[in-house]
Amino acid sequence: MGAERDKPEVRTVVHVHGARVPPESDGYPESWCVPGRSVVYRYPNQQDSTLLWYHDHAMGITRLNTCAGLLGLYIVRDSFEDSLNLPKGPYKIPLVLMDRMIGEDGQLYYPVSQLPDSPWVPEYFGDCTLVNGKILPYIDVEPRKYRFRILNASNGRFYFLNLPDKSAAFHQIGSDQGLLASPVEVKRLALAPGERADVIVDFSGHAGQQIICSNLVSPVLQFRVSAGPVQDGSALPDKLRPVPIPNEAAAARTRRLTLAEVDNLLAQPMTHLLDGKRWHDPVSERPVLGSTEIWEFLNLTDDTHPIHLHMVRFQILDRRPINVDSHLFENKLQYTADAAPPDANEAGWKDTVRVSPGSSTRILVKFDGFTGRYVWHCHILEHEDNEMMRPYEVVGRVSAQ
Ligand code: C2O
Ligand code: CU
Ligand code: CU
Q: What pTM was computed for the model?
């Protein structure tokens, strides 16, 4: 949908990922415009401090526009965060990770399939990792605490960041939608496309050393720590912002939504669908403004899909393995093990959740904000552009469901 030949080749619409904004400023995929036109969007910024990001969301070609560079950071600040005395100024550094293919001509490269009627590829993986647009860069740091705000802006790549044993560790203080209740030490920091992590790294025991941050075993970024000592007046507080314990009883209903592949020989490569529906099928998720719901994603595929809802923030309740075959062939939901709570560094406010293969993943969402039409989708951009996106509509309190 949306990438047909009759569409203008150059078109875009901007979405601020994680922002609570009225629908007319959210960047609805079909609201793209062409060069020479402009639109005014208004961002209320009425939400907790966190790292958001903006990117293209044009129907059918988000993967291309975003890969070409239409993305950036959008930071919301507040006085509560300021009062925590976290590292600031030059000691607060955003890190935008993305992988790219670069051709022999030094230009960005995006592949096409061999099929003229379906020229897309199922996922895009580049052989170069870029940090803030540079391949394998280094940062000169002082032996003290730093705050790194990390975004995975890749089309399809997941990162599993780690620092060498016995060196500095990641102390995660925030997830997608803001501060955690307290810092969590993380050995391997998993980030799916669209996810963010706010971390403190203390280089104070490492004066004069060079420390490499890797993705699994591939280097991503080097820290060159200067000789010390230096003064560090910043803090890594034990307590950050209180996060409520999720109250399942507050949910007005549970929606069970499948993530599944369609085995259609005409669809090359594989199409993934949400709840068995395509983009243009009628809206089926119509939560009431101010109500709370549980969305239970049933992943019947072999891949992890990072599922993102626009406008809202949510909490992850649990993940639980399911019998995929009995769901596929008998339409029966059968859990095969106990439910596991989210990782400690996911137990804050989120807007994108990794839904593991063969699992049920449940989130608790309050539809606070605005009424109107939004979208939810997989944040692997090749999946999103290939039908793994659905509209949803927040309706007024008086409307019938
Ligand atoms: Cu990062 Cu629909 O968005
Ligand atoms: Cu978004
Ligand atoms: Cu996906």
A: 0.96
Q: What is the pLDDT of residues 333-357, one digit of tens each?
A: 999 999 999 999 999 999 999 999 9
Range of the structural domain that residue 174 is part of: 89-225
Query: At which residue do the structure tokens 């490499």 appear?
Result: 212
Q: How many domains does the chain have?
A: 3
For ligand 1, whether the C-beta of 377 sits within 6 Å is yes
Ligand 1 lined by 350 (C-beta under 6 Å)? no
Whether the pLDDT of residue 255 is over 60: the answer is yes
With a cut of 60, say whether residue 265 has pLDDT above it.
Answer: no
Taking a 5 Å cut-off on Cβ, the residues next to ion ligand 3 are 305, 378, 380, 383
Beta carbon of 196 within 6 Å of any ligand 1 atom: no
Tens-place pLDDT, residues 27-63: 999 999 999 999 999 999 999 999 999 999 999 999 9
Q: Name the more confident of 198 and 266.
A: 198
Q: Which two tokens stand for residue 380?
A: 């692997």
Task: Tell me the residue ranges of DSSP E strands in 18-123.
Answer: 50-56, 71-76, 92-102, 108-109
Coil, strand or helix at 241: coil
Range list of β-strands (E), 333-388: 352-355, 359-366, 372-378
- 41 & 171 share domain: no
Report which protein residue has its CA nearest ligand 1's atom 1.
17
DSSP one-letter string for 104-141: TTSSEE----S-TTS---S----SEEEETTEES-EEEE
Structure confidence at residue 271 (pLDDT): 83
> Cβ(390) to ligand 1 under 6 A?
no
- Start-to-end C-alpha separation, the chain: 27
Residue 368 lies in a domain: yes
- What percentage of the chain has pLDDT greater than the value 90? 90
Using a 6 Å cutoff on CB, does residue 17 contact ligand 1? yes
Instruction: For 116-158, write each residue's pLDDT tens digit.
Output: 877 888 899 999 999 999 999 999 999 999 999 999 999 999 9
How far, in Å, is the centroid of ligand 3 from the Cα of 26? 21
Give, in order, the Cα–Cα distances in Å from 75 to each of 32, 79, 135, 336. Answer: 24, 13, 24, 41
| For the CA of 352, the nearest atom of ligand 1 | 1
How many angstroms is it from 239 CA to the middle of ligand 1? 30
CA-proximal residue: ligand 1, atom 3 (nearest) = 17
Coil, strand or helix: which one is 332?
A: coil
CATH code, 37:
2.60.40.420
